[in-house]
Amino acid sequence: MRSAYEVASVRAAETALMATLRAGTLMGRAADGLAHICAALLGHTYGARVVLLVGSGDNGGDALLAGARLARRGVRVDAVLLGGTAHADGLAALHAAGGRSLALDSAADSVAEGAAAAAGLVAAADLVVDGIVGIGGRGALREHAALLVEQVDAAGAWRVAVDLPSGVDADTGHVAGAAFTADVTVTFGTLKPGLLVAPGQARAGVVELVDIGLGPWLAGGADGPALAVVETADVAAAWPVPGPDDDKYTRGVLGVVAGSTTYPGAAVLCVGAALKAGVGMVRYLGDASEQVLARWPEVVVGAGHVQAWVVGPGLGTGPEAADRVAASLASDVPVLVDADGLTALAAHPEWVRGRSALTVLTPHDREFERFGVPVGEDRVGAARRLAAELGVTVLLKGSTTIVAQPDGSATVNPTGTAWLATAGTGDVLSGVTGMLLAAGLGPAAPAWAAFVHGLAGRLAAAAGPPSALDVASAVPTAVAAVRDRIDR
Q: Is 0.90 topped by the overall pTM?
């Protein structure tokens, strides 16, 4: 997995590292990496036009120093200075290399003239670098910066963000208003959570990580990473593959309590996804057995020994459904609670507090609110709080799915796609996760399942807008694609 660190940890690591280096070394490393990636995007440097949007912090200094490096290679570089005081050494380096600057000061008398000149530079640019605010920025961009960002979007130039798109919260990914939208974000030292979590993740584009030597200092931090990013190799190494001595019982038996006369499809999708993911056997308990058996004749209807339960999809919210949720949670095996099961559980949180076996909750934002507090601006923080409060693993569904553990650790899934925003795909995710729980993967199961589920959504969408059943059908292909990493 790759790790992402919050601003406080990054600042502490930078301070510790800079104490061992000559002044300016760290910024020089960042500028080298930024200039190299910008040159690669341009394809040629001589005669190309680059515009730097420069704020008053070190983020703007990185942009100016990178601009100086590009100017020395024949690029025409213009820096638009957005108020305050630009980084002195960076600005001097840019001017010495032949670059030019335009001060856009909201207090000046010639605001309209300066804004028009800046707009002209942006319109003619081949590439625009966002160095307005850095990882310490909070809230929406100010008026002049917001207007320039709109003009950049309309210009059609390459858009490169320095460390983090301006207007995106580095710790949470929250976007309060106007923000830069990058094609490429060049981030330094380590990933930041805001680059990985929606809506900031959508603003970041392709994230390029430049090593500036922070690694050892971050590893020594007391708080550790704020977030881990699941990678293909992680899932490939963990995904269960049957051996010559396995049978349907050793591969894992999953109990599914889902579906109703009103929502039989939820049971069909959940059971089918577990089977497609590779479960040894499914025992089904619910009111949609006729529909389940018609689609999946290998399913066993009725109670029996299981290694894990999935309870809740399409179950309904009446007293009988609540009793089924309570009975599942009274067992001593892992239980995943989804959909209608979450409604019942929200009214009885004591059902999970103190459970000795693993409990996984898989809410989307509206289901999360049933536990008393909206998700809010900090999705990772919200998932962490609910996980700690109830002593459960929380898989918070969304365009970037978060998995939080009771100990405060959290992962983000990078394979999600907006095509999964259709009825029934959550039932598919529950089935895939249930398979991994029954196979004994424990707290890591939701993260691995989300990765494969997202990949299945992408594969299913390749043929056009997918249904939930299309996503379930693509699960074996997704698993094969992941396993190919190991089989090679």
A: yes
How much of the chain exceeds pLDDT 70, in percent?
Answer: 97
Tokens 């060049």, residue located: 186
What is the pLDDT of the chain when averaged over all its residues? 94
Backbone angles phi, psi at 305, to 5 degrees: -70, 135
Per-domain residue ranges for the chain?
2-227, 232-487
CATH class for the domain made up of 232-487 = alpha beta
Structure tokens belonging to residue 391: 């002593």
| Long-range contacts from 148-153, C-beta under 8 angstroms, 24+ separation | 148/53, 148/80, 148/82, 148/118, 148/119, 148/122, 149/53, 149/178, 149/179, 149/180, 149/181, 150/178, 151/119, 151/122, 151/123, 152/53, 152/122, 152/128, 152/180, 153/181
DSSP code of residue 393: E
Strand 393-396 with 410-412, pairing: unpaired
Is 341:312 a contact under the CB 8 Å cutoff? Answer: yes
Evaluate if residue 109 carries a pLDDT over 60. Answer: no
The helix (run of H) or strand (run of E) holding residue 67 is helix 58-71
Q: How far apart are CA 476 and CA 456, in angstroms?
A: 8
308: which DSSP letter? E
At residue 486 the predicted structure's pLDDT band, cuts being 50, 70 and 90, is low
Model confidence over 421-477: pLDDT tens digits?
Answer: 999 999 999 999 999 999 999 999 999 999 999 999 999 999 999 999 999 999 999
pLDDT at 85: 87
177, with CB counted inside 10 A (0-12, 13-18, 19+), is exposed
Separation CA 286–CA 261 (nearest Å): 9
Question: Domain 2-227 carries which CATH code?
Answer: 3.40.50.10260
